[in-house]
Specification:
With 387 residues, the chain is mostly beta strands. The chain is 3% helix and 43% strand. Strands 1, 2, 22, 23, 24 and 25 form a 6-stranded mixed β-sheet that branches. Strand 24 and strand 25 form a beta hairpin. 54% of the residues are buried.
């Protein structure tokens, strides 16, 4: 894809500087995060969009499933899920997956904004795929859209909608959830949404080109922390033996979900045990950033799902169910609600991603108030996010 070329030589070694702020590594925490007062204070009463936010923050609705996106002629897709943003001149683009079958509009879409945040267009960037759950942004500005089906694929897509999407079977065929690119070490990390899932990494033969490479799986002991090793998956195609069963001793993760890399660490979540993991890529070691079974008192974060990170080093973790919150985990190990969507208990929060300048947070309620995939709502929150 054309936009990849000019970035290939620039991305390696620059990602830590790009994120700025505290270079927090999950392994630096002595213990998993505990409840406390968040940096923005208490949540206020629900606003007109039914969202409780800290003082000084506001929200607006960007799109609704099945309805034309304001400022465009495009009808937004059903069941919006994983997302990411991309700088676009003086504006930006937000991409979003559709977690429905190919016959119901599976794939991914994008919304383009001008420098003032006004929507200028919306359009399809991937079609004909199934249950595109999460994914990940690449340093060469493509979107990896992941199929959450048995022997599903990763599809590399163009957020601008110019270049055709490309299937990337070298990244393995399994029930993909999310992907996170690590330009510092030359890997793409991948989660698997199975109760006995695994955690993978893919090394491209040429960084910036996902057509070929080596798929590996994490191998470790039964504990939750310490050094890990990786072994090559013999058959990434996953047939007749599924990828997660091909390497003896591969560590089991209970329902892999969101995945995000920054500042030397890949954070990923597992919904089956409500944990946020931190893989220190420099030390090749694993630790827990959050575990609701180790929380003193009531756990503020349950149903862990998609995850992103702000420039300050705060992790923002969306809930699948729970009480429909996005919670943040600070670099000093405090976990607290950042926002709560009210009146939508039959839904889940998906796709959190910051605008390139860090002043706006995008996310969706996948099923909205109706509890149906056709009732999805995509939001923007604006406010004094700390940098």
């Amino acid at each position: 894809m054309e936009r990849r070329t000019f970035l290939r030589t620039a991305v390696i070694g620059t990602s830590a500087a790009a994120f700025g702020g505290t270079l927090w590594r999950g392994a630096a925490l002595a213990d998993p995060a505990q409840p406390g007062t968040g940096p923005y204070g208490a949540l206020q009463a629900a606003n007109g969009n039914g969202i409780q936010l800290p003082s000084g923050f506001s929200s607006r609705i960007i799109a609704r499933s099945g309805r034309t996106v304001s400022g465009s002629s495009y009808a937004w897709h059903s069941a919006p899920d994983g997302g990411a943003t991309y700088a676009d001149g003086t504006g930006w683009i937000y991409v979003s997956n559709a977690e429905v079958s190919s016959g119901s509009g599976g794939g991914a879409s994008a919304v383009r904004f001008d420098s003032s945040g006004n929507v200028t267009s919306a359009y399809r960037i991937l079609s004909g795929t199934d249950n595109n759950c999460a994914g990940g942004k690449t340093p060469w500005n493509t979107w990896l859209s992941c199929e959450e089906v048995t022997r599903g694929h990763v599809h590399e897509t163009d957020p601008w909608g110019v270049d055709a999407a490309v299937r990337r079977p070298a990244l393995g065929r399994f029930k993909h959830e999310a992907a996170a690119s690590d330009p510092d070490h030359g890997y793409v990390y991948l989660t698997e949404d199975e109760s006995d899932g695994r955690f993978y990494r893919f090394r491209p033969t040429t960084w910036g080109d996902l057509a070929s490479g080596t798929l590996q799986v994490l191998v470790a002991g039964t504990g939750t922390s310490g050094p890990v090793t990786w072994q090559t998956v013999p058959d990434p195609d996953g047939s007749p033996t599924q990828t997660r069963y091909q390497v003896s001793g591969a560590k089991v993760f209970n329902g892999g979900e969101g995945c995000f890399y920054a500042a030397g660490t890949c954070w990923f979540t597992t919904k089956g045990d409500n944990r946020v993991w931190a893989y220190d890529a420099d030390a090749s070691s694993l630790s827990l950033a959050y575990d609701d079974s180790l929380v003193s008192g009531g756990a503020p974060l349950t149903g862990v799902d998609n995850v992103t990170r702000s420039s300050s080093g705060d992790l923002y973790v969306a809930e699948d169910g729970g009480n429909m919150e996005i919670c943040l985990i600070t670099p000093d190990g405090t976990v607290a609600p950042f926002l709560r969507i009210t009146g939508q208990s039959g839904s889940e929060i998906t796709g959190p991603a910051f605008s390139p300048d860090g002043t706006r947070l995008y996310f969706s309620s996948q099923r909205g108030t109706s509890g149906s995939s056709s009732g999805g709502i995509t939001y923007e929150v604006k406010g004094p996010f700390r940098g």
